[in-house]
Amino acid sequence: MSLPYPDARTWARDQSLANAPRLGRLESVAFQAHPDIVASFGADGASLASVLRTAGRRTPARRLGGVALVAVGILLLLAPAIGVAIYGDAPAYVAPTAEPFPAELAVPISGICFTVAALTQLILAIGWLRGGARYSLPLAVLAGANAVLAGFAAFGLPNVAARDDYPLGAWMIPVWATIVLGGLLALGIVLRRRAAPDEPVPAPLPAAPTVSDGDRARILVAGLTHDERVAIRGDRDDALQILAERGLIDDDLRARATAADLGTLFTLDATHPGAT
Prior knowledge:
Structural class: mainly alpha
Strand content: under 5%
Number of strands: 0
Shape: rod-shaped
Radius of gyration: 30 Å
Distance between the termini: 24 Å
Number of helices: 11
Largest sheet: none
Low-confidence stretches: 90-97, 198-209
Helix content: 55-70%
């Protein structure tokens, strides 16, 4: 999780003496391993649940997937660029004595580069579709640039082959595949932007929790195992004791909070006006 507190006890020890703590926030920290339950704990719980869900998506596997995606992007940038550069003439101010590569070398290398580019674009397209086919300007630009570079090669490679009387064979297939895949991917991403619906406006949160809010939280908490409930209650009650010992809540509020059902402390914040 991305929270700086591993449990509610740590949270309670870190609270400023200048503010009265919100009990709903305390219990949200105690339940942080269960974002769906935390979301039912009033405004504090709904806010914290979104943080917990985002943190939950940042798993090591997803981080590794992000690194792999960056590597694929770099490969997709380099492969077609090399595929075009290999058969071109170097500018005189860069290499005044350089001769162009012969077709028997340039054509196969360029074909291999565009094979890599086509396969890489196919992987990106599959990942884009599986990820929800969302609009992405960098990905659209990358796919479009590859299609353009492949377009250059569609004219350049035949000229190089004709110059040296070298048979193209099947080396043009990956070039055309890169044009088609890059063009379709770029077009699909652009169309997704036009088709993307407006973000829904979230409904305003109720000013104060109701009885039905507490009942919903109780039902969700009841779905946990006995051992989980015992551990969370222990963490919660210890945190309440810490707050009382530090003078942040009085003994009456501590007693009422300790006696409250798991998942319902946020309903006490309405009767605890000093909470911030």
